[in-house]
Amino acid sequence: MNIYDFDKTIYDGDSTAAFIKYCAARYPRAFVTAIPTLGAFIKYIARRYTKTQFKERMYAFLRYIPDVDSEVEAFWDCHEGNILEYYKKQKRADDIIISASPEFLLIPICKRLGVKRLIASRVDKHTGKYTGENCWGEEKVRRLSEKYGIDHCDKFYSDSKSDTPLAEIADEAFIVCHNDLKPWT
Question: What predicted TM-score, i.e. pTM, was given to this entire model?
Answer without folding.
Answer: 0.94
